[in-house]
Amino acid sequence: MPLPLRLGVNIDHVATVRNARGGAVPDPVRAALLAIEAGADGITAHLREDRRHVRDDDMARIKAAISKPLNFEMAATEQMLDIALKIKPHAVCLVPEKRTERTTEGGLDVVGQLAYLRPFADEFGRANVRVSLFIEPALEAIDAAKEIGAPVVELHTGAWCDAIAHGETDRAKQEFERLRAAAAHAAACGIECHAGHGLDFETARTISALPQIVELNIGHFLVGEAIFVGLDNAIRTMRQAMNEGRAQAV
Ligand code: PXP
Asked: What is the pTM assigned to this prediction?
């Protein structure tokens, strides 16, 4: 039997819509509660340096309101470390961050930043906050995560999803093989494996068949789909797609 597969719903873009008018609605906390009602196993949110979507008070309110784990995505900076240690989420996911990017482009350079990242993993380890590193599906990044002592990696699925979206079949196949090899390598290293970025119903169904992946974090597509069918419905359909994919796992 493959391991159960969790769905973390990223509510950042509910806050993006709220911020477009500078008011209080739509409230990302309401979205988080609704997502859990609809079957999310956890809530993910990325407190960016420029606070372009969720803000500090959103993080605190979400943590206080939800009964399921909060996954706090953040850049590895001293300021974010302080904030995260105060909020004490269930988990943090360290991501690379550039002010000019539209979304998280590429994974962390764990190999090149081993010495810089290690104290963050140590600090969160001492605080009993599980650390995940958002990485490209590359074996050397997983080896470096192991060296740092990170218990979890999240594989960046963006390149694979982009290749599919652009109809680049060969590249999509190559990218999927990288994900498959990385997930197997993480498990062999004793590291829990998550995945996310750019996933929709189809890609979530496909990747759910990789048995070592135990959590998917999905946001933009679900919030977009919610415009047409409602958030509850979008999340239930996503859960169904993941279950169907998981049933194919060997
Ligand atoms: N996982 C990580 C680490 C991310 O940075 C993001 C985007 O914030 C996601 C998952 C979700 O990606 P998407 O919004 O494209 O579903």
From this structure: 0.97
